[in-house]
Amino acid sequence: MAKKYNLTDVLKKNFGFDTFKGDQEAVIKNLLDGKDAFVLMPTGGGKSLCYQLPSIIMEGTAIVISPLIALMKNQVDAIRNLNEEDGVAHFLNSSLTKQAIEEVKADVLSGKTKLLYVAPESLTKEENVEFLKSIKISFYAIDEAHCISEWGHDFRPEYRRIRPIINEIGKAPVIALTATATTKVRDDIKKNLGIQDAPDFKSSFNRPNLYYEVRPKTKNVDKDIIKFIKANPGKSGIIYCLSRKKVEELAEILQANEIPVKAYHAGMDSVVRSQTQDDFIMEKIDVIVATIAFGMGIDKPDVRYVIHYDIPKSLEGYYQETGRAGRDGGEGQCIAFYNSKDLQKLEKFLEGKPLAEQYIGRQLLRETTAYAESSVCRRKLLLHYFGENYEVENCGNCDNCRHPKKQVEAREMLETVLEAVIALKENFKAEYVIDVIMGKETSDVLSHKHEELECFGSGQGEDVKRWNAVIRQALIAGYIDKDVENYGLLMVTPEGHKFLNKPHSFKIVEDKDFEEETIVQAGSTFAVDPELYAMLKNLRKKLSKQLELPPYVIFQDPSLEAMATTYPITIDELQNIPGVGAGKAKRYGEEFCALIKRHCEENEIDRPEDFRVRTVANKSKLKVSIIQSIDRKVALDDLAISKGVEFDELLDEIESIVYSGTKLNIDYFLEEIMDEDNLIEIYQYFKNSDTDNIDKAMDELGGDYSEEEIRLVRVKFISEMAN
Q1: Which residues contact 309 (CB under 8 A, 6 or more apart)?
Q2: Whole-model pTM?
Q3: What percent of the chain shows pLDDT beyond 90?
Q4: Burial of 621 (0-12, 13-18, 19+ CB in 10 A)
Q5: Predicted confidence (pLDDT) per residue in 637-693, tens digit
Q6: Which residue of 111, 304, 403, 502 is most buried, as measured by CB atoms within 10 A?
């Protein structure tokens, strides 16, 4: 059948392209010959053409099973634009009226429709199954096929029912397509669809034009994002957040800072979502802040950056989302903000889910952690995850390759790891192997009697971070392998056995310490103007003596650092500094503003006025609500529940309020939960201390109090002494 057509002519006539990309032509010929296929093609590789072109040639209607209504609409519009006949493509889903559904069915029955997009939920409806039985089907295309697998990043249970429904409707070739799938996910997809014998068309996952970077996520993350966007004016970008609440908050902050942006998430009205997507494609707005509900199959080739506000739940999700940048082969910056606390929160969300789901979720999170913390070429790490070997030592287009860390010799450490994996009979995961090497007598280790092994405690001289780096880089080098099918157990490869027989140099780069970087960023070393920062600290010290207050009560270090970066010279400008509210600015601000103004005049400094981040009412709405609730003496634990936040998140908000200069009286709550003597002891500690650091307070107070108790008393102290 394929030989009857000159495919290049069909391509030119219907799609306007002169040549096929990668495996496109081979996939199309395979389908025209009536065979099943599995297509693994990165975002931007031209997956949709693999079923759009043959659908035009083949007799009957192609059924495209797709997970998102917005994606269907997008693709149907694109095909209609290329064809004289509007009825050439349709979609069938829950967004259509009864009359619209009848019109679609009429076009299909008349033979006009070559492509019919169907949501998996619509495919299972009895009336749709009966209708599809009555028509000639050319083939079935399952788009975003990773949704079939529980190991995929966007698993949908309804996708598991596709094969039985196909069997009921009628036999035709099946083509499964995805932009991201590990070997495990690929095997799962083929097995579930009953196409185990189908050929694999697998394109390289390497996107050379994409730049990958992971940055420490600090309290200044909103400001960092605003700076990045303003440094890339007029460019299209997507910012991904994990929660709908954060999507809306961040979009408001960006709007307040005059950035053309809209929010997008599944909880919004479908008309609003559709309009937002159209506005982005038509460049009425530059930026979309979204959950992962946005972007699947979006046809916008010139997205210039993708920012992950939160680190994703899996590397597959990360690859899929970053793949929306630079699809035209041009610039594509992929920036992810990482903090280990975010991953701990994601682990918490897994609790209460079925055990199998928890296990899969944790495995995927570990891979994400390894990627974020590693100092190895990010491209090499990503490609290795998808089973592709990247031979180049330095890709030159990721943060780790542009700023390489010094390599250290780890030959003996690798020998220790390999010997331990063998001694443990290749039956344990990386975390357990490290416990044994470091001599940790955990309940698991003792129950297996592995403390009796010769390798137990053989690596006590090194820390966990370095052992993790050795294992991760030994995996990439091919000395060990991970059995993903079986709980991620480590195994020694033939190359690993060769290494043990004849050891040679093995150099590693140490993992990044994001906790350290986060602390440094908040400290004095990150101030743009170190000289001014030192002067501000001296002024604070002088005031603290005059007022008999600890220095941090006046302004915290991060606030001084921000002053030495944006140079506020009026009380209004000072209120834009993190941790400085109206009360604090009025109480202490005049001398600081005068000092900054004098310093700018003497040194002829141009102040970066456009980089002052404006806060938004949405955040203050929550703060106002908290202040009002505390005025009404609402118990703080009840307040957290009513606001739908964790208690420590509520404490973060309360601390932000009092550190900004607003007085709060939480005595009613403290009296209920704490002994008076204990309260006085903690209060006196802060009065005499030169720091408000909680970890230091917990050390000094001898572990007699919980972190929450210390934080609550600190709120009382700051409120009474500073505000």
Answers
A1: 221, 225, 239, 240, 241, 242, 246, 250, 337
A2: 0.63
A3: 29
A4: exposed
A5: 888 888 777 888 889 889 888 877 778 899 999 988 888 888 998 998 888 887 888
A6: 304
